[in-house]
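Student: Hello, beginner here. Can you help me understand the protein record under this note? Any guidance would be welcome.
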Amino acid sequence: MLIQGLTSFGGEFASPEREATFQAERLPETIRHTRLVLILTAALNLLFFLNDARFAGTDRFAPVLASRFSIIVLAVLGLVLLHRTRTFTGLQRIAVAWQCTTVAAAGYLCTSHSEIALFTTLMAPAAYMLVLPTRFAWTVCSGVVGTIILLGCYLMPLPLPPTALGLLLVCGLVNGATMLFVIRSNRIRRLEWAATESERRVNRELTESRALFETMFRAVPVPIVVAHARDGQIISTNDAGNRFFGVRDGDTLAHYRTRDFVAGSERFRMQQLLDRNGAVRDHETRITILSGEHRDILLSIETVQVEGIGCLVSSLVDITSRKAIEEQVRLAAHHDVLTGLPNRALFQATLDTSLHRAAADGAGVGLILLDLDAFKEVNDTLGHDSGDALLKEVARRLSGAIDPGDLVARLGGDEFVIIVDRNQTGADCERSLGALANRILDALHPPMPIGGRIVSPRASLGLALYPQHARNAADLFTDADLALYAAKASGRNCATLFDPTLRANIEERVRVTREMRASLDEGCGLVPFYQPKVDLVSGAVIGFEALARWQHPTRGLLMPNAFSTVFDDPEIGIAVGSALRRQVLADIAGWLGRDLDPGRVFINLSAAQFAQGDLAGGILEDIERSGVPRDHVGVEVTETVLLAGHAERVNAVLDTLHGAGIRIALDDFGTGYASLTHLKQFPVDEIKIDRSFVRDLERDANDAAIVTAVLQLGRSLNLAVTAEGVETLEQATFLRAEGCTNVQGYLYGKPMPASRVPWFLRNRPDLLGGEEPSQQLQFA
């Protein structure tokens, strides 16, 4: 039966391993105890030997002398052997061997039958069991064996004395009592050792745990600060905390309080959170470290008791770098990378805020939409680096022109916008807006060096006001955009204030565009009309100009000026041009199939069509598919098309067509800004004098001089010249006298549908015969 891990008989540990541990741990003490026993044994026997000297000369003296001397020698020998003992087993062997030899010597002593022999017989076995450090089994065996030997030696020789039974009972009683004492002693000693061991283990674990906690506390990379809850006095911090706060070597934070690092308002907020929740979790705040630097942190606080004192354990996560990155991301998300100005997102948010505040205060807000004039030419001629430099300089000048309460933003490309928010109303707001627009134009005016050239930035400005023109941000922006469109249409480099009629115009443009798209989807509505071109000398019809007409389902036949805005949409402009071109080619093929010669029919190309990927290839493919000879087809382009940019693309298209035998005519010659340059740059076969110069040439000397100069230029460059808008005989007579060969106008024929052309060709003036050319001119 086991009691707390001890055997009930013997009082030793039931586990051999634990018993061995017990014996090994107590071995030094056991050796000292054994050494003491041996010394006492030698000393006592020496004293007994002196006492036994009185037996000298008697027959008892020889046994006493031999026994005492043997015991003393054995004790000394045991002391010598103890110096080499390192295990309990070895100690036990010495003890058992010493007991056996001393029992033999004592047995010899007992043969003397003296009083001391009786004492030895009774007490020596008990003494052995009490003082010798052996396992319980050896203790019992050596005690019993010793008692038998000593008692046997004392009772010898036979016959047994009458006291033998009594001696036997006394020995048994003494040995039994001794064994019970040994059992109790074993148990007590092992229980004490187990308790001591448990205490030592607990203390060791506590020490290790405390050391581990201290190591972890110091090694945790997150700054941790422990402070008194009562007054904020800092008790301790870990290494990361010392580094975070900038504590110098040999210094400590114990001289500081939390108020030295956290502002009073923040301490009050955190105390409120602690009172309400008992803890703080990931509270974002800002603190000041020892160097005076501000750091953003995520703070968590726990309330704990340290030796009965309320303390706050705070962990800090440094998010200063993260906040800086977030700020950079915020700036990148709300500012233009190139110019550093606010971008469209920040502009929109600011405009919404300004309108909301203005609505609450009853104030006005102005909006200026700005678009650089001829910015694309800078990019195309000087390169994109120069364009970027121009944009940055414009951004700098705009920032310097506005007032502190205004905001200038870049929407993209060369488009900027300014919010004018000055808490003004009515006319004051309008005057401020106009004054700022003038300042902007003046600020942009000074020339600047870019790409080795001097560039003078110019811009068109569209102005709109809240609440006079619009009640929300979207409408206000639309109004400013309409005003900007009007500024560009009125000559650029100016500012235009929104007018309600502009919205009506844009609504009309949207409606026309939508209806044109529907007509294209249905494949009907667009029809070409043809106006003849006549040889002024012979009166012969040498060709036609194909003009676009739109058979509107409700408004009837519309002229091009009624739907010209659809060409602002490249997609629709390309579709309209393609549809008209195919119809014109089909009409030419039909006339040729009826043995009618329409001459060369010219098709107008709009600026939108040049945005098509392969315009020249598409035209030539349509011509091949229709079966029309190329000498019956020509194209006309206006100078506005040549001025619209993409000069390289336009030139490539015209070169391809010219090389394929398609005649190129330059329409509205003289109305552009670089007419002579265009004659040199592009492959032009024919120039057409604009009707604005022909209309009053018989009354206006300037118009007459211009027409004469153009005719002379055409002869010099070997170019055919066609005068447009000829409506009177006087105009025709003047043109003929000045050497003009080709004319076009109402005097010779108005634009006609395709169905009318066959009749016209059969009744040409040059086929009537017998008439003079002057009479033929009146055919129309």
Summary: The chain is about 55% helix and 20% strand. Residues 768-780 have pLDDT under 50 and may be disordered.
